[in-house]
Protein: LysR family glycine cleavage system transcriptional activator
Amino acid sequence: MVPPLNALRAFEVAARCGSFTRAGEELGVSSAAISLQVRQLEDHLGKRLFLRQGNRLSLTAAGLALQPRLGAAFAEIAAVTGELRDGPPRRRFVLSVLPSLAECWLPGALEGAPLVDLAIRVEDDPVDFTQGAHLRLTYGGQAYPAHAIHTLFQDEIVAVSADGAADRPIHIDWGAAYPNEPDWATWAAAAGVPAPDRGQGLVVPSTVMALSLARAGLGAALAPRRLVAADLAAGRLRLCPGPALPMRQAYVAIHPVAMTGRRPLAALLAHFAQLSVPEAAAPSNQRTMA
Structure:
């Protein structure tokens, strides 16, 4: 007997979001309702799908086996119903990109890329692939445990400003969705200079805003080297004397496993592979592009 559709949908969204609360927000119900639906599905299947550790969720082996196929099934349902509603598909490939990558890296990376019928969406994580995205470019793959993940590049944090001075640091609050990266205290310790006062100076929510302020001469920003390469080449920013700090994760390209080998996905991945530098071995579901 087929499990209830609502229970399957609740599990798929919770597995993708990694949270009953975020799943409830996406589906317009309470986290308790999501938890109940998942529990009913587990009872129906006779398998535990999640390991619950306080507010943290992780998929069991059964959950990992179910999530990608269920995600692909819901994506197919969305595609079929979309065709019935809107007519034949437009055959447009949708590239979803993290805002900082879209602003600072993608324009140069797309030079010479296959651009036919390519639509670019700029959005934060996590992205719902059932809503039309085919390929996601972002930082770290922790939000997509059941997807194919390819390393784009590993980067390092450098200090930049309009005049090359680091005396007015701009602080970045990365938010809860992303791991903390090296901050000014870490940079100062590596440089052997006193740490700046976090309570003074500008605090912004993104790399993009920090770099905009730095270009305007309002202070120094810490940013990934590849994301400031064009600004450094054009003279809009200058490197501040000091260390380069390795970032904790890689920038990655992510897609549903079911799309592996399809065009233009394969063409875009091959193009990005030409830009990437091989790094150390990645986790089992993450591959360095080659």
DSSP finds ten helices and twelve strands in the chain.
